[in-house]
Amino acid sequence: xxIIALTTDFxxxxxxxxxxxxxxxxxxxxxxxxxxxxxxxxxxIAQAAFVLSTIYHYFPExxxxxxxxxxxVGTERRAVLLITPLAFFLAPDNGxxxxxxxxxxxxxxxxxxxxxxxxxxxxxxxTFHGRDIFAPVAAxxxxxxxxxxxxxxIDTLFTLPMPRPRIGEDGVLSGHILHIDRFxxxxxxxxxxxxxxxxxxxxxGGHFIESLSPSYAEGxxxxxxxxxxxxxxxxxxxxxAAALLRAKVGSPVRISSLGK
Amino acid sequence: xxIIALTTDFxxxxxxxxxxxxxxxxxxxxxxxxxxxxxxxxxxIAQAAFVLSTIYHYFPExxxxxxxxxxxVGTERRAVLLITPLAFFLAPDNGxxxxxxxxxxxxxxxxxxxxxxxxxxxxxxxTFHGRDIFAPVAAxxxxxxxxxxxxxxIDTLFTLPMPRPRIGEDGVLSGHILHIDRFxxxxxxxxxxxxxxxxxxxxxGGHFIESLSPSYAEGxxxxxxxxxxxxxxxxxxxxxAAALLRAKVGSPVRISSLGK
Amino acid sequence: xxIIALTTDFxxxxxxxxxxxxxxxxxxxxxxxxxxxxxxxxxxIAQAAFVLSTIYHYFPExxxxxxxxxxxVGTERRAVLLITPLAFFLAPDNGxxxxxxxxxxxxxxxxxxxxxxxxxxxxxxxTFHGRDIFAPVAAxxxxxxxxxxxxxxIDTLFTLPMPRPRIGEDGVLSGHILHIDRFxxxxxxxxxxxxxxxxxxxxxGGHFIESLSPSYAEGxxxxxxxxxxxxxxxxxxxxxAAALLRAKVGSPVRISSLGK
Lengths: 260, 260, 260
Prior knowledge:
Three copies of one chain form a homotrimer. By secondary structure, chain A is of the alpha+beta class. The first copy, chain A, has two domains: about 150 residues, 3-Layer(aba) Sandwich (Rossmann fold), CATH 3.40.50; about 90 residues, Elongation Factor Tu (Ef-tu), domain 3, CATH 2.40.30. In chain A, about 20% of the residues lie in helices and about 30% in strands. Chain A is built from five helices and 15 strands. In chain A, the strands form two sheets. In chain A, strands 8, 9, 10, 11, 12, 13, 14 and 15 form an eight-stranded antiparallel beta sheet that branches. Chain A has a seven-stranded mixed beta sheet with strand order 2-1-3-5-4-6-7, with helices on both faces. In chain A, a hairpin with a 3-residue loop joins strand 4 and strand 5. In chain A, helix 1 packs parallel to helix 4. Chain A starts with a strand and ends with a strand.
């Protein structure tokens, strides 16, 4: 019943993900491997952190996540195992676990540096720790090896600054676009509970939206809606909002309220 | 031994498919999940219906298919469970099951509207019923929950008009391109049994083909062949017929017979 | 505990891979199916052979690989089962198994032509032996059918000429780019043991590199490193070497030694 879930920037054209699966299945042939996403932009740590944040709550307790977006592979950057009440996370210590860390009470976090080479695949390459360190450690973890056997406990992990909306002196809520999905929906860092009360007035790329829609199909051409991760999304009915607005990750979204 | 098969337009870059898998595995960790296709063009219901039609016959009896191409998500459009002697199909009632319905005797079809929120994931988002309704219902179905428990039986389902070739007054068979595959092969709606007898004369985009080839490699440059779904295909030897002919889904193919 | 691994040029947009999975699971619902790669360039046999070569060592003994890059499908080209001490390989006899054959002692190779239609799916299409021959044979093999039951033993298999570096009269080692990965890393056919002793002087597309780097991050802008398949790679720190150098598969890499 164990699950190992993979999030990487290895793409789908190269044999890197398959090599990891081969290593895992050679150690634990009964484990269930799930692909989360392999088309994270090369070396885009923030994107991997976001993608992971939207799915790990939905997996069974005890799922083992491997997250390999690892520009520092082969250097002294640490490889870590983070344990929360929900799941295990194996990743380079470079910020890919930032949302997980932010969303878990500190007393529920336990971290271990992967320093015990006993569980690694030799020779360890300088360029592919996904295959040589993370995959075999995950497989042994799924077989019941105690987390402490993989290395020493550590007290701090590297985290990225998390984008959060701010309310300015003029009372305007300023957020940013976190992610643009395949449909061109713009997912912002503004959560439902961040929204001001009263009639909303949303400014995105010079276009204005004056209310929340109950569904994509029931909105106006350009619409705002609370999306599936509880965040404000900007969407174009039967179209692609990102293309229309030439929006990018990081682009601002500003919301004012016309009052109660 | 249960299988849940997924066909969506969610793409491979976003975490939507993974969220569905997490929900399914949280309810039934032993089920086998199979990806059919996740790169259906955004909101292209006809394409999803075609793709599904070419594969469901090959899966074990009792396979549970989830098909989520769902521009009406969050509106009053129905979510349904269609039961045939071969398989279960969970989908929005928007035509994605048209081929399944057309290919099954009406007396062998049973349909249920998913109206019982007991099996849904709360809060149900307005934008992602794949995760919040279809995935948990599929997982419970795989565990043996009776179909009737998910909602009330219904008598009609929405279907798309199915493209079919026609014979004109001049005796010419007129069909259309249904699908263009990765190799540039043009798959038509003309089945082997639709073909006129005698010597064929095939007109596609102003190019002419005068016989069927026994294989891709044994044909002329531009060739016609009966493909793996039993339909007439137009193909370019060692090349891409779609690029050569600038063909699109819906483009006409005309066949006359010089014989008999 | 049996594994069937799939390498094809069928892409991810079409239902071909899913049809193969349906056929396999209909015969052996308990087998684990692993996707190696489905985005081999259409009909690029050499690329499939390379991709396979980088992963088959990492899978459990007895894994059944299906490799379908098959421009000759439907002709008299043979379909074969190759057995090595490590794995089973089902493929057209067109060179996709060249690296496997080269890397295995001849006395450890056993090959069978798939000539017994008893295990095929009927009607056998002219265009899709992946579904109609390779998939059902793999599934029956995973259930314990004896290899000899699938056809007659054969003595020779078709192999491609393997790219290998050469040392010219001027003492310069000339190799070629074998593969370009998603990150723009150029993987060459030069193995660590091929490298001359002394200080290296690497010429790739008119750019020069004078040493090996211990990691991607610790190198200069353009760097050379021993990659995860034991081969020399050219890489651009925080960038895409293939784009910078306008390199292609087959482009030359020349190495001279200034030392000793």
